[in-house]
Automatic annotation (TrEMBL):
Name by which UniProt lists this protein: SAM domain-containing protein
UniProt cross-references to Pfam families, sorted A to Z: SAM_1 (PF00536)
UniProt cross-references to SUPFAM superfamilies, sorted A to Z: SAM/Pointed domain
Residue stretches making up the SAM domain: 1-65
Domain of life: Eukaryota
PROSITE patterns: SAM_DOMAIN
Xref: InterPro entries: SAM, SAM/pointed_sf
Residue segments, region Disordered: 107-127
Length: 141
């Protein structure tokens, strides 16, 4: 069992010295302290959300600047997953855009030019007026 003066002082900064024994039981010293996540805090018995957020804030505030720039391996995995999700979403949106442009070109070829109108018609995106030739056209699939 490690008793870290650094961890004790860090917890004292946010008034949560009552958790020092939990950190000691789990051998959490300065080298591990900066890598703790919310899940880790729950696992060592810090169940109160407010207390966990306070501890995470102290970790962020005390973390040396050079360590703050280096993502943790779990952060990298999460970022890669999020990038992959964004790429998939962008691909779907691009495919939808291409399909819409293709369909619009087809409709423009098939439709007669609209009559001159001296007013402005405001429509909700995706909702066409009753008289519109596009009223019953589905662009999404």
């Amino acid at each position: 069992m490690i008793e870290s003066l650094f961890v004790k002082n860090a917890l004292a900064q946010c008034g949560l010295e009552k958790y020092v024994p939990a950190f000691n039981r789990n051998d959490i010293a300065e080298d591990v302290f900066f890598d703790l996540t919310e899940e880790d805090l729950i696992e060592i018995g810090i169940l109160d959300l407010s207390d966990r957020l306070s501890i995470l804030k102290v970790i962020r505030d005390l973390k040396p600047k050079e360590l703050q720039k280096m993502p943790l391996s779990t952060d990298v995995v999460q970022m890669q997953k999020r990038v992959s999700e964004c790429e998939e979403y962008m691909h779907r949106m691009f495919s939808t855009l291409v399909a819409m442009k293709t369909r619009l070109s087809e409709l423009e070829k098939d439709s007669t030019p609209p009559e001159e109108d001296d007013g402005i018609t405001i429509v909700t995106p995706g909702v066409f007026p009753e008289s519109s030739p596009h009223r019953n056209v589905s662009y999404f699939g």
